[in-house]
Amino acid sequence: MSISIVVQSYDFAPFLAEAIQSVLALRDPAPEEILVIDDASQDASAAIARSFDDPRLRVIVNERNLGAAETFNRAFAETRGDFVARLDGDDRYRPDFLTHAMAAFARHPAAVAAYGRIELIDSAGRVTSSARHPALPPGPHCGDRFLELLEDNFLSAPTLIARREAWQHALPVPADMHFFDWYVALRIAEYGPIAFTDHVHAGYRVHPGGMHVAMMREGWGEAIYLRVLDKFFSEPGHAEAKAARRRRIYAKWYRVIADNFFGYGRCIDARRCYRAAIVSDPWHRDNWTAARRWAATYLPRQTYESLKRFFLQARREIG
Question: Which residues on neighbouring strands pair with residue 203, listed in sequence order?
């Protein structure tokens, strides 16, 4: 069984060498094929990729910028492995990623994919958090997690490796799906059972130029999240279970989007999404928090931060 790793980059010159080095360091097993694809970067990314000398490594540079989705569609078509994983050029693997992932496939032959935990890293590569996502299973697990993943995007892209046929079910990614990690993970999860290793597979870098930061700071992330929800709720699979959870799931994602907008100071957008969360599921227990945050969007930011510090200090003194 052969393994291909795709490293996808656009203007990630400060981080790309570390990403590629982390792929080259993978052992037990090592990947047979490493494909680095650069989406017509305007920085030195292509030159950095070409500076590595390893017979397993190929570099493709798009003649023009295609966007993240089309770039991955092209990259996957160039791979040959029975198992394929994708790493963004600003993230990095743990050296034992494939050890744990392939052991999970051996334990669970029916699994179409394997995934694990992440650690958050900063621009300098320092680990800032290894906190466990609350929606992850309490230990190693294999099963149908499509509905849980629809409600909470707990599967981090750099921890995922899937069988070739599972990727083929998920692709092609729609060309305008600029942030497609959640969409692809859902497609793979609907294809078959997925295995969780309960090991840290990768470091996910949080920095100002990251896709997840940009999508909420610039506002276009809301349309992506809602488009994914609308797409999967319009399809027949898991119909009865989706219908039972529909209001709760939409409300949850409106709260997530609103919290992100609020964090970036986009109070009008946050206010609209908090209201949509309450309307979507009026009796949900989290609506008190949504209503409180909705009210906070009317306050000047400095006033809100002062009140927040006051109440946190009061809670510490009481508790």
Answer: 92, 119
Sign of CA dihedral 37, 40, 42, 47: positive
Q: Residue ranges of the alpha helices (H) in the chain?
A: 13-24, 45-50, 68-78, 97-107, 146-151, 164-170, 181-191, 211-217, 221-233, 239-263, 267-280, 287-296, 301-318
The two three-digit tokens of residue 39, written as one number: 């989406």
205 exposure class (CB count in 10 Å sphere: 0-12, 13-18, 19+)? buried
Which CATH number is associated with domain 3-207?
3.90.550.10
Chain centroid offset of residue 42 CA: 24
Q: Could you read off the pLDDT of 170-180 as tens digits, one per residue?
A: 999 998 888 89
* Through-space distance between the first and last CA atoms of the chain, rounded to whole angstroms: 56
Separation between Cα atoms, residue 35 and residue 89, nearest integer Å: 12
**pTM recorded for the entire structure:** 0.91
Tens-place pLDDT, residues 211-259: 777 777 888 889 999 999 999 999 999 999 999 999 999 999 999 999 9
Q: What is the CA radius of gyration of the chain?
A: 21
Nearest Cα residue to 293 out of 318, 266, 270, 316 = 270
Going from N- to C-terminal start, the domains of the chain cover 3-207, 236-318
H or E element that contains 120: strand 113-121
Coil/strand/helix, residue 291:
helix
Single out the residue of 205, 10, 186, 202 nearest to residue 90, CA to CA: 205
Residues ≥6 apart with Cβ < 8 Å to 154: 133, 135, 136, 148
